Amino acid sequence: MPFSLEKLDIRHCVVAADFFSSDLPHLKDLSMRWCRSSASLSIGHLTSLQRLSLRNLQDLCFLEGLSSLQLSSAQFVHVPNLNMKFISQLRVKNNLHVSSSVMLNHMLSDEGFTVQKFLGLEGCNESFTFEESADCSSIKCLLFFDCEISSLPGNLKCFSCLRTVKIIKCHNISFLPDLPSSLNRIEMCGSELLRDSCQAPDGDSWPKIEHIRFKGFN
């Protein structure tokens, strides 16, 4: 691959264990989707990497060097066999997307983990709650996208600085839990049951959002 490569998007390929062994000092954006791969990949030497997107990788178990990177954004969506120890002390400056509630709670409970702004839960199939040890105080925007869960986590108040909640294509959610007082924006799209529950003045969830400055329903 070219020494000057800055963006690499790999789809529907077989990725060998030594695929990233070459020197790619300028690589900033790495995406892998719908790939078969070795159980172990090493990316810690990709020191310029800012954006990492891993989606639908069934074989990947070990991601060596991940904790040594300082990423602007990261996505771990349907990577079911990734060993949790390789996401310990993950540092993400802006945006994080995950599909596994187990992985998310593991990240949030790790003392070295940081994500500053945006947290997205995408394609999650199991209802869950955030663990008491989870540190959510820095997160400003929370997204639930295309989730099959029947309810949102009941302890969203642990997001003490949360400003925005977005709920998109979550068809089974029909009510809202108690929300943090810091919230000033809530958006819903393609979540019909929840939208009906939030309608003024008689919706069951309306009293929980009545005070919120901006409310968007589609």
From TrEMBL:
Taxonomy, superkingdom: Eukaryota
InterPro entries: LRR_dom_sf
Protein name: Uncharacterized protein
